[in-house]
Amino acid sequence: AFKDHFLIGGAVSDRQIRENDTNSLNIVETHFNSLTAENCLKWEKIHPKPGVYNFEPADRFVEYAEKHGMDIIGHCLLWHSQTPGWVFEDESGNPTVRDTLLLRMRDHIFTVMERYKGRIDVWDMINEPIGDDGQIRNTKWYDIIGEDFFQKAFEFAREADPEALLILNDYSLP
Full-prediction pTM beyond 0.85? Predict the structure, then answer.
């Protein structure tokens, strides 16, 4: 009833997209006009190892949403959780340095966003960056890169897709 007025949607899993959960899909296809990726676009799923990307589940998610004429929310490019340890480590397993982490961040953002440019127009750039105390969450991203972590992430994303809507996503603000 409200499809022409605002977006209504939810996060869907790969299990749902593989059409193994027909009850959920009936609700999604009948009542939703936008979809958010539950896990398939998170770093650990799409970029599990250096230089290795697994686009199959994300491609399936995007194709499903497109097939049903839904807007797509890319969730999420950067998060303190569900990011593989190698992202923050050097070859010896020690914490990496700022410049290396910035290069990894930029490569990841560009690789993922460019693949879905024109198909995913809204991105959750940074997920849950605010702690339960209302302060910036102390994460490896923040510890290694520093105070301009947010700025750099948004700059890279803007370069990768100047037309995309970029969102800072949080849920537990005090």
Answer: yes
